[in-house]
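I have been asked to look over a protein record a colleague put together. The record follows directly below this note.
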Amino acid sequence: MATSITAYDTIAAISTPPGEGAISIVRLSGEKAVATANKVFKGKNLTRVKSHTIHYGHIVDPETGDLIDEVMVSVMLAPKTFTREDVVEINCHGGIVATNRILQLLLGEGARMAEPGEFTKRAFLNGRIDLTEAESVMDLIRAKTDRAMQVAVNQLDGNLHHLIKQLRQEILEVLAQVEVNIDYPEYDTDEMTTKMLLEKAQTVKKAIEQLLTTASQGKVLREGLATAIVGRPNVGKSSLLNHMLHEDKAIVTDVAGTTRDVLEEYVNVRGVPLKLVDTAGIHDTTDKVEKIGVERSRQAITQADLILLVLDQSEPLTTEDKQLLAATADKKRIIVLNKQDLPARLDTAALLQLVDADEIIKTAIPTSDGMDALDERIAKLFFGGWDKLGEITGESAPDELITQLFSQFCLGK
């Protein structure tokens, strides 16, 4: 990875989301960033101002003299910037027309439209951040919960970088000792015996494996835990979805088969982002439309990271219930034994012959009974003792990896 600043052409992009808002930001980075902005700015001479200062003025079309917008312009000179290049940020009024007009003026004065993630890519190439920190920038932008945001901030702060760098150093020290013993056997050096080498390798291997096992959990924080709510018709699946969302998103009636398709919504459960999938009740049906929904429900089971299997304890365990218990046996799941507010008719002893007792959470959704326990179980199931992401530092990253990573960023970042 580069450790010195490399000269690139000057890039520009809109760094704020499109649409109406209080302000928009147009960002430039590169050797001619200040000079380019100065060509369209009426106010102070930006080429003479101090670094890390902000200046009031107007953006003016240099050809027609038309006043485009009233702005505040920040000037930040290399190397103390995000990209380690000269950076200019034009803060204009929010809105599509004015913002795009300013960007087009900058492109007309010689700047190039930035590629997705190119600002962060330049920060990486100029040694400002490594790949773990670059990925954390994207994670921070995409964070759906406070917990996901904190993990991203910790990674951006270099926690993971330092850990992996330490592991790499331990491996290098082992290799160095081995080479000393091979090249200079006549000297009285501490021999790196096979036993010592094996012990050290196992220690490093264990640490790496611990990181790798948390990689899937990092994916959950970034993308959300795909959670399928399944069960036969009218056991309370849609009620569970609505309760977790705190809104009436799914239709709830006492008529079986109301949900005929798959509904997807995001929800925050104890800092864990869940991508909830409310499925159609799985049962035998001759209804053509309902049959399609049932098939999609079965597909949702295979694709889910977590299954919330809802059973109705006010009715006896049915053949369909048993089939669902068997179909989800190899998945991470929680058995939601619902309708505790009604008289019990389900044989709990028979159920415990099919599932472990610690898989079961008893709920009465209308009264919220058991919902806190369900939230706690979800959080513990995936994040008990977890505090690191398993990614790479990028000290010897191939070009393909770098290109693929930064292409996922939005324009202006």
